[in-house]
Amino acid sequence: MPLLRAEGIIINNDRTKILVQCDLAESFYRFPGGGIEFGETASEAIKRELIEEFDLEIDVGNLACINESIVEYDGKKRHDCTLIHWCSGGNKVKSPLIHNERTEVQLVWRNIEQLEQKITYPEGIIEFISSGSDKIKHLIVKKCYK
User: What is the pLDDT of residues 10-21, one digit of tens each?
Assistant: First the structure.
């Protein structure tokens, strides 16, 4: 059964920086969010996760893209579907912002050039953001690890 997730692309007012989640070494970047609980919308899940994890209130906007990740590893198969929304309201955030429960996780402001230098999940998202397209994108990632 696919896992349904929601994440937010929190972008500053002049669209030059994005608030991303990473470890303290910044070995990778991803967008904040988490699993959608039964009965809640993707927008509600993004808001809940950011309040629970970082005491951060943001505005969730339109759907930006859908990411399907189909991965096979150790004989197991996993299919995740993530609804990624444009978000605003993070301009007052001073980074880094440390996770409330996992001190090795942080939110930091990074520009596109910085995000291009490291692995940024989901694959293909930086190209989509850079394109400036307002059309909803469907990103599909299929991997098999043996």
Answer: 999 888 899 999
